Amino acid sequence: MTANTNTRNVKSRHDYQPPAFIISTVKLCFELDNTATKVTSVMQLQRRQAGAPLKLDGQHLQLLSVAVNGKQLSEHEYRLDDESLTLDTLPDSFELTVVTQLSPQTNTALEGLYLAGQTFCTQCEAEGFRRISYFLDRPDVLAEYFVTIIAPAEQYPFLLSNGNKLSEHIDSAGNRVVQWHDPFAKPCYLFALVAGDFDRLTERFVTQSGRDVSLELYVDKGAAAKGEFALQALKRAMRWDEQRFNLEYDLDIYMVVAVDFFNMGAMENKGLNIFNSKYVLADAGTATDKDYFNIESIIGHEYFHNWTGNRVTCRDWFQLSLKEGLTVFRDQEFSADMGSPTLCRIDAVKLIRTAQFAEDAGPMAHPIRPEQVLEMNNFYTVTVYDKGAEVIRMLQTLLGRNGFAAGLALYLQRHDGQAVTCDDFLQAMQDATAKDLSRFALWYSQSGTPELAVSQHYDAPSAQLTLNLSQHTPATTDQPIKQALMLPVQIELLFADGTKQQHLLVMQEASQQFLLPEIHTEPVVVWLEHFSAPVKLKADIDDRHLLFIAGNASDGVARWDAMQQFWSRKVAQAIAGNAVEDVLPEALVSMMASWLQQPEPDLALTAELLSLPDFDTLAEQYQQVPVDGILAALAGFKQLLAMRLREPLLQCYQRLPLSAYHYDQAAAAQRRLRSLCLHYLALSAVDATELLQQHYQSADNMTDTMAALAASQQAQPATFNLLIDDFAQRWQHDALVMDKCFALVASDPAEQVFDGIETMLRHPLFSWHNPNRVRALYSAFSMRNPQQFHRLDGKGYAALEQVVGKLDGINAQVAARLITPLLSWRRFDPVRQQLMQAALQRLANIPGLSNDVYEKVNRSLT
Ligand code: PHE
Ligand code: ZN
Predict the structure, then answer these.
(1) Could you give the residue numbers annotated as active site?
(2) Ligand 1 centre and the CA of 263: distance in Å?
(3) What pLDDT shows up at residue 687?
(4) Which CATH architecture describes the domain 23-197?
(5) Domain 313-445: what homologous superfamily?
(6) 36, 269, 436, 534: least CB-packed within 10 angstroms?
(7) How far apart are CA 12 and CA 333, in angstroms?
(8) What is the pLDDT of residue 249?
(9) How far, in Å, is the centroid of ligand 2 from the Cα of 335?
(10) Please, which residues have CB within 8 angstroms of residue 68's CB and are 6 or more apart in sequence?
(11) With a 6 A CB cut-off, is 125 part of the ligand 1 pocket?
(12) Do domains 313-445 and 451-540 have the same CATH topology?
């Protein structure tokens, strides 16, 4: 079974009980103050279970008073502990008034009500509302909210909450008093409040049925110009959801607020999204193409939650993928339609093959619908989100786009205003399409990465192609026994005469044979086109055929994937002791040269075809990760390619035209290919310094600036040191750009990285209290610097251990996210294993360790 978490309160999915009371309306009044905010909550409750006590959740609160139907309770009429307020004898229907006090300023966890700089803001998902007031803090209690916010008028021009504004005035004491009402019943995790001073950008959106919606984006004073892109992205998302899924916005106002202190990317609070400023603010000088892409996709994501998450929400937190997997799928489809579907898919596949496969193979393995949870914050994972999205994508593949859209429409119509389960979702899909999804449902309960072994046999006399498929899911730490899953396997047959055929094979059993008749010559089979299922493919395709697929498949993702498979094999051969020169076929070099000479229409695809798999992708292919072998092989191949392809690289680099920065798909693709050329050229030594300097100096945008910095860091340390100093100097006042600087410094593959990190810790903009700053330094170090993180003297592991230990007392949620790279210690060689395990053990021994870190360390060591 799972880890020994018996000393702490682990919850199981099967223990779900409906609430004993429901709360139909809530009136909240906030009297804001940095250290003593008073919250008055007046709730209407109705009993749903005879005799049961009312147990309200609450943490880090000072209780000032409790009243039932207006009558104050004395202390012996309720029970209070660190986690709850319990009332025993209550009528069937009553009004409960609870007054509490809290200190936003000392709230470093950034859950509940906290201060982000001068701005008051809230974060309630998953269980943050209990830090604001005593409440039934669970997603299946849906209430109508009325909110009053009171704060000094001068200092707080904007007092925001969910829904529509009812009134605003300034009282005799000089306080601004604003009232809000959200007509849609919602769970408390969607509650939000913001108070501060901002620049406000506004827009209008007319919905497909002609309703006028006012869009408002709030950013730091002076940053208005950097909000324009996000605001336009919001309009695109709103239009797209109408066109693709016929879903329209439902309130008269939609607000987005950017704050610099935020644990995650953004939050879909009803009508009042709160965003990490990193996913809102952008201009050419400070944001990369990748940043622009992320902003559009996250703006879309949070907007799409308005239906998939808010109008229909989760019954309990085990159902998280119900809203997150589905909404990630929707944002991926949106991004694909706004830009390049191939590139979007490649990026999604990379994430699954690195982080998600690693999660399945490690101590935190869980199904997309987890079974057991100690700290819910630990389950906002790539499995729940991104594998969850893969599961939805498979449904669409199996049901067809129209069938899937019909299922989604039925689901939303049937459950509007309800808190439901993943089973309810599947039921709607099944009812709308009359397809049997019982085997498919296993994707929700089974963890682990299926391995799909495939082979082909061609019989010329009968003109028949036989395809043999077998699936096997290895045991995971949480679940020893696995069953066969329903797998949509998209294939393409490539014939010598240039013709092609597409087929969808639907696998339902452990082993299956598919017979394709009337195949008159033996084709090359492209397996798992578009990564049609999140599995590890085992196919014995020889080098020549892989290169043929890379050159000829219709699907760009399949072409890229063939190159990835090819390189994986070459890296394995190098690790086995072959010289890189000996395993690199001439055919490959000339193919890469021809791509450089005649790039694809999609230049970004060309860049991907020319890129080697990264360290993490390769690492996932080994039972025991050969750290040094992978690093040496990658360096060797890149160096060799840089030399062999120098001329075509240089020509391609110079041929790509330079124009003033603009973010669009074609321009971003051009920069991507140019950066790739620069990366290789930096390795070829000749003139590289000059080229890098010039690339850096002539850049009119952050994408090119970062490309020059990253390329020089890998190959030309002296140049890198010069450029990074200039960069740090130039952007010393811009926190979001300094994050890029921190991340670069921390990804330095040389030993000087430790001094670099020390220096950055003393930077005026660095703060242990700001998750963006901490992550910029330490996620980059532990996830993008395998050379130094995996040092054989343990210095890298110790650095991460110290940060996690320190951060646990400040922001446990962020600490627990940072620890991830240490958890998979069993995947490394004995020396590294021992070092990593010892670091985890020291963390486990910290007295008063948070549930967040405890759960992970404990699962990992057990
Ligand atoms: N629900 C948010 C999203 O996916 C993520 C989030 C979770 C934000 C928990 C904050 C806290 O859009
Ligand atoms: Zn989400």
Answers:
(1) 302
(2) 9
(3) 80
(4) Sandwich (2.60)
(5) Neutral Protease Domain 2 (1.10.390.10)
(6) 436
(7) 33
(8) 98
(9) 15
(10) 87, 90, 91, 94, 95, 96, 97
(11) yes
(12) no
